[in-house]
Amino acid sequence: MKFFVDTAEIDQIKELNDLGMVDGVTTNPSLIAKSGRDILEVTKEICDIVSGPVSAEVVALDADTMLAEGRKLAKIADNIAVKVPLTWAGLKTCKALSDDGIMVNVTLCFSANQAILAAKAGATFISPFIGRLDDLNMDGLDLIEDIRTIYDNYGFETNILAASIRSANHMSECAKIGADVATAPPAVIKAMANHVLTDKGLAGFMADVEKAGIKIL
Ligand code: G3P
């Protein structure tokens, strides 16, 4: 499973990228707003750091303007994936951009039917939002599983990009189901390293290091 990092914070992207943990980046208008940066500038900076796909989201609601925005975003770098919402206008934009060979990430997907439409429209990525379904007492992971089954049934090449990931557990569950990519905030990726038995074991080893005066350097 590929890891995308869901942030527009340059320092955090750099840190994880240097560790080989970043196969791509996803942003959205809320993350751009949080960064306080100009969308075109910060997106260009991210594309200069990361070689994998960098999702940049359109902000218009009608297809013509979305398409113009998408084309402008795509000019930033070769690794831009234009992100469009899963609306009828977004699907039209997806089809037009993917016909032009531009990567498209269709976002705000909450149903298997929406995922089928995105694949038909030539999406490179479909972004089902797990956490926001969980918030409504639904099971976001069930949606990932349903889309995996449907895409495999028909050989759809659209990549399942599990999004709205809130916990380290979501990451391993997505990997078990077979999501192609998971995009997560840096804190969630870092939390994957945590285990209480690792901490306990290390404390025991450190006590013995102290007791025996073990030195390496
Ligand atoms: O990748 C989508 C993500 O940014 C949304 O996450 O936690 O706001 O539902 P969240």
Keywords, please?
217 residues; alpha/beta; TIM Barrel; eight-stranded parallel β-barrel; 11 helices; 8 strands; binds SN-glycerol-3-phosphate; cytoplasm; Transaldolase_3B; TAL/FSA; transferase
Can you tell me about this structure?
It contains eleven helices and eight strands. By secondary structure, it is of the alpha/beta class. The protein has one domain: Aldolase class I (TIM Barrel, Alpha-Beta Barrel), CATH 3.20.20. Strands 1-2-3-4-5-6-7-8 form an eight-stranded parallel beta barrel, surrounded by six helices. Helix 1 (10-18) runs parallel beside helix 3, helix 6 runs parallel beside helix 8 (140-154) and helix 8 packs parallel to helix 9 (168-177). The site of SN-glycerol-3-phosphate (G3P) has 10 residues, from helix 7. SN-glycerol-3-phosphate is lined by residues 6, 26, 28, 129, 131-132, 163-164, 166, 183. One of its GO terms (molecular function) is aldehyde-lyase activity.
